[in-house]
Structure formats: structure tokens, C-alpha cells
């Protein structure tokens, strides 16, 4: 039940302040940390820490960040034989500002992620036999995402797309290749062309995404919960109430938790609960990958809240 993650690998440089700056403002912060990140790598770590065999495909630069990023993936149990080192550029970097309420702003410099190409897609293709799902995001070139999704569809492997950062020019064909799409409310607003400000609009957005060919559309509403529309049903899963410290990687944790649930044989509704739990746990700690829960923490969190979890 191997899961493949094809996507970005970044080093996150995180500055914390009492609030987020406005345009043109210099603001004094109170903490700084570096942490391995990147939406692809985060999702790979999120899956692997829940006990699911995970293969990462992507690129790092030929710098000290690249070495650290690969070591971090391996320490979490992610297989990295298909992570390439590109000596022509730096590793990807994300510059992140976080306020005391846990909200964040982010600038991503792609580096090696921007050079992912058809050679990397071939590595994905080689892994598809025996895989149960392919996780994709938009921090690598769109043509590589599309090619990988096509290959996965042909191989009968479930395609899970996190459309972040959101693009206004998503190819129509990509929607038809996606089994599950998981935008947050900002990303969904950009994809469907109207503002999402609550559950009702989120359901409308999910249905519009399904109209484009996506089998299952999920819209993540942060502390408000998650809505989902599929051919069989539409449903809402409330968020788990926790004290948020940092929302960085919460969406990645959701995708990883949901994918792990599906790989473990859960139905979509139960897998979404797993995703919501993983996302909530991630907001309780600082940093991207350092905040992602392991199986023991995850299992205990769900059981404390009345959700029985069988050991993987």
C-alpha cells in the first residue's frame, strides 16, 4: 500500500511576531526557526509518520539545505532514492511569517523544485505498480503535475491533488484525472471564481469542482471544519478544537492523514476525519515537519475524542 508523493521539498525560514506586517511595514519579531518543509515533503512525512510506506519524488539543490532536507525525510521513514540533487540551483526556500494567533503569510522561492521535469515523471511512473495513491501539489511545474496525473490514471492509482498555491490556469484536463481535490477556502475561491465565506459557499465550490470532472471535492475551512462532495453524498466534518500555535503545514497534514486513512482501508468520510485530526494536531506545534504527528500521538488524540483506531 505504498503512497507516492511527487512535489516540492523546501527549507522553511520562519519568523514569528505578534501580528503579520502590512505592506511597507517593518515589524520586530520575537522568534526565528528553520525547519524542513515544502508541500510535497510535508505530505510525505505526514503519511510516513502514520506508518504507511511512502516514496518521495522531487528535487533538492546541491547545497547544505539539500543535504539537511533529504536527511529529514529519511529520519521520518520516507524513501528518498527518487529525490534528485540538482547542482545547478539552490534548494527551494519558503519565507514564512507567523502571528501569535497562528495565522501565516508565505513567500516560496522554488529553486530546484522549479526544475522538476519529465525525467522526474519517469521516476513516478516506475513506482506506480503496487502504489495505492499519488499525492500532487502545485509547487512544481504544472506540466509535470499533469503528466504524473495522466500516468497514475492509466495505472489505476488514486490521484489526490492539493491545488496549492492556487493557479488561475489549471488545465481542464487535470480536473478529469483527479480522484480527490483538497483546496482550502482561499484556494477554492481562486479556482471557482467566487469568495468562499462559510459552509454553504464551500459546498457550492465543491460541486463546481465536481462539475469540472473531479470525482471527490473537499474544501478545507480551517477551524470551521471540512466539507466534501462526492457522487454518493455531501457531508461536513467539524474541526477538532485545539489551541493553535502555528497553522503552517496543517493542510499538508490533512492530506497526509486522509491518504493514510484511505490506504488503511477507511471510507472517504472516516479518512476525512483522520485528515482533520492530523491537521489539528499540527497546529499545536511550531514548524512544518516538526509539527506533524506520529502514529502514537495521532492514535491517542482520536481515541481521546471517541474515535476508535485500529493499529496499522
What does this structure look like?
There is one protein chain. This protein has ten helices and 13 strands. It is α/β, with parallel strands linked by helices and 312 residues long. β4, α2 (64-75) and β5 form a beta-alpha-beta unit. α1 crosses α8 (250-263), α3 runs parallel beside α4 (142-155) and α8 runs antiparallel to α9. The model has no long low-confidence stretch (mean pLDDT 94).
Short description:
By secondary structure, the protein is of the alpha/beta class. It contains 10 helices and 13 strands.
Task: List its salient traits.
single chain; 312 residues; alpha/beta; nine-stranded mixed β-sheet; four-stranded mixed β-sheet; 13 strands; 23% strand; globular
User: Looking at CATH, which topology would you report?
Assistant: UDP-N-acetylmuramoyl-L-alanine:D-glutamate ligase
Got a strand count?
A: 13
Fraction of residues in β-strands: 15-25%
User: Which shape, going by the Cα principal axes?
Assistant: globular
Q: Roughly how much helix do the residues carry, as a percent range?
A: 25-40%
Question: What gyration radius follows from the Cα positions, in whole Å?
Answer: 18 Å
Terminal Cα separation, in Å?
11 Å
Which regions contain 5 or more consecutive residues with pLDDT less than 50? none
Number of domains: 1
The computed structural class is alpha/beta
User: What is the highest CATH level, the class?
Assistant: Alpha Beta
Tell me the CATH architecture.
Answer: 3-Layer(aba) Sandwich
Give me the CATH superfamily.
Ribokinase
Mean pLDDT score: 94
Amino acid at each position: 500500500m505504498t503512497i507516492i508523493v511527487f512535489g516540492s521539498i523546501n527549507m522553511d525560514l520562519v519568523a514569528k511576531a505578534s501580528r503579520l506586517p502590512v505592506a511597507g511595514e517593518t515589524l520586530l519579531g520575537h522568534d526565528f526557526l528553520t525547519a524542513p518543509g515544502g508541500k510535497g515533503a510535508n505530505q510525505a512525512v505526514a503519511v510516513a509518520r502514520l506508518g504507511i510506506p511512502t516514496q518521495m519524488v522531487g528535487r533538492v539543490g546541491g547545497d547544505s539545505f539539500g543535504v539537511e532536507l533529504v536527511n529529514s525525510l529519511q529520519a521520518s521513514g520516507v524513501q528518498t532514492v527518487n529525490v534528485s540533487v540538482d547542482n545547478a540551483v539552490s534548494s527551494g526556500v519558503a519565507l514564512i511569517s507567523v502571528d501569535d494567533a497562528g495565522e501565516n503569510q508565505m513567500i516560496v522561492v522554488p529553486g530546484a523544485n522549479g526544475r522538476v521535469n519529465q525525467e522526474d515523471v519517469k521516476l513516478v511512473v516506475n513506482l506506480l505498480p503496487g502504489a495505492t495513491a499519488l499525492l500532487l501539489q502545485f509547487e512544481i511545474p504544472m506540466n509535470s503535475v499533469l503528466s504524473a496525473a495522466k500516468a497514475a490514471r492509466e495505472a489505476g492509482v488514486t490521484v489526490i491533488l492539493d491545488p496549492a498555491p492556487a493557479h488561475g490556469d489549471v488545465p481542464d484536463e487535470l480536473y478529469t484525472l483527479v480522484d480527490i481535490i483538497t483546496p482550502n477556502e482561499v484556494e477554492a475561491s481562486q479556482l471557482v471564481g467566487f469568495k468562499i465565506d462559510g459552509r454553504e459557499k464551500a459546498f457550492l465550490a465543491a460541486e463546481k469542482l465536481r462539475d469540472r470532472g473531479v470525482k471527490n471535492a473537499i474544501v478545507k475551512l480551517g477551524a470551521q471544519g471540512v466539507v466534501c462532495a462526492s457522487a454518493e453524498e455531501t457531508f461536513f466534518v467539524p474541526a477538532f478544537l485545539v489551541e493553535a500555535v502555528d497553522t503552517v503545514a496543517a493542510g499538508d497534514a490533512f492530506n497526509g492523514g486522509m491518504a493514510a486513512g484511505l490506504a488503511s482501508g477507511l471510507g472517504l468520510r472516516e479518512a476525512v476525519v483522520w485528515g482533520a485530526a492530523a491537521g489539528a494536531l499540527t497546529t499545536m506545534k511550531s514548524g512544518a515537519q516538526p509539527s506533524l504527528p506520529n502514529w502514537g500521538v495521532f492514535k491517542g488524540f482520536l481515541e481521546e475524542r471517541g474515535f476508535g483506531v485500529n493499529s496499522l
